[in-house]
Amino acid sequence: MENSSFLSSKLSEKIADFDFEKEITWKTRILLHTTMWLSFAILLFLSYRLAYDLTTFNSVILTIRMAVSNMTIFYLFFYVIAPKLFNQKLGIAMIILSVTLPLLTAIWLWITLGFSVLYHYLGYEIGFGELKGAITASAQQTFWGAVSVSRIISQTIIIISLLSPFFFVKILFEISKLYSKSLKMAKQNSQLQIQNINIEKDFLKSQLNPHFLFNTLNNLYSLSLKKDDKMSDMILNLSDTMSYTLYESNAERVPLTKEIEFIKNYVELEKMRHGEEKSISIILPNENETKGKTIAPLLTFSLIENAFKYGLKNKENAFLNLKIEVKDHQFSFNLENDFLPKTELKNFGGIGLENLKKRLQLIYPEEHTLLVTKNKNTFNVQLDIKL
Questions:
Q1: 87 CB burial (10 A radius; 0-12, 13-18, 19+)
Q2: Where are the transmembrane segments (predicted)?
Q3: Spatial distance between the Cα atoms of 213 and 273, rounded to a whole number of angstroms
């Protein structure tokens, strides 16, 4: 039982890791489809040649007629009709299916009629055997006579039996593709949960470290001695910041309004700690712009924290500029700050930046861009997310 479970998990992992979109390229698809229809044509040719004892030429022209008719129906169904069915409710999908199946049969019959008319015009005919005169008989049908109710019903059964192997292969391929996608999503969700736990631990260590609290409490003490009015605001900011990190940021998504409020509170605390002599600019979206939108919590915190930790060191030009915009479900984050040239670039990123990249890849795959640049003494981060 354990070996069976192990093999099953290994197989599931292999399927999840297989990238259908990457591995099954358009060249591979063309090769597979060509092989499939060539196999069908060869079997059909042999059927005409051996079962009906037709000449090679007659077997070829009938094979072409049948192959083209079946290929047309196959591609119309799977690449035109089927994608529309998946976007509908079951009842509507059944109605569409019940209408399109007879229509596809009619198209199949019309294509067959067209080939028969062409062959008859060119003088092709079967001169003996069970199919003697079949081309002429088919060509003499009227356009609407070829698609009578009785013929549609009988030919639908024939078409289904002819195409059932191809339908089976195609459906099996799509099921495998969906199964791989679902396994991949499950795997990513597991990784995301583990990642979120690790990030939460790292964040709490960073946010609640003694250095941060010590500096904040020192500032509070200084303000209390001066009886400064800013003291109450600072206490409230600290309380809101800790409340958010401890109780509200554990969800997969949080209201963007609360995330922006958290960023604002944290920056205000840092501004009080650094004093007015440092140039700190912050531009945040208003509540109307963030209302009703959600975002993964604490995505940008490590960037902001690093900016205050390693920036604002240049005595001649110490600055930190933070700008967040929200327009048309696009979250744009830009952070720029000074740093001392001797400071290594890795200090600005480290584990925090790597965790951010992983979270973005897991939560917002192909829906984000992150650009980190370092000039002579300026560090800049641009992050755009489609909410």
A1: exposed
A2: 30-51, 57-78, 90-111, 152-173
A3: 11
Task: List, for residues 75-126, the tens digit of each pLDDT value.
Answer: 888 888 887 877 778 888 888 888 888 888 889 889 999 999 999 999 999 9
Asked if residue 280 has pLDDT above 50, the reply is: yes
CA gap 185, 176 in Å, rounded: 14
- Domain map of the chain by residue range? 2-185, 208-386
8 A C-beta contact, residue 81 and residue 106:
no
d(CA 176, CA 178): 5
Structure tokens at 89: 């409710």
pLDDT at 376 over 50: yes
The Cα 325–Cα 107 span in angstroms is: 54
**Four-CA torsion 300, 197, 291, 288, nearest 10 degrees:** -20
DSSP 124-191: ----SSTTTTHHHHHHTS-TTGGG-HHHHHHHHHHHHHHHHHHHHHHHHHHHHHHHHHHHHHHHHHHH
Strand 330-338 to strand 319-327: parallel, antiparallel, or no bridges (unpaired)? antiparallel
Beta bridge partners of 294: 255
Ranges of H-type helices in 208-279: 210-226, 230-243, 256-274
**Residue 202 pLDDT:** 56
User: Between the CA of residue 253 and those of 197, 259, 324, what are the distances in Å?
Assistant: 14, 10, 18
Residues 6+ apart with CB under 8 A from 367: 385, 386
> What 3-state DSSP class applies to 324?
strand
Residue range 154-201, pLDDT digits in tens: 777 777 777 677 667 777 776 666 666 766 777 667 666 666 656 655
Note the pLDDT of residue 164: 72
Most confident of 14-18, 56-60, 241-245: 56-60
Contact assessment for residue 267 and residue 307, using Cβ atoms and an 8 Å cutoff: no
Reported pTM: 0.49
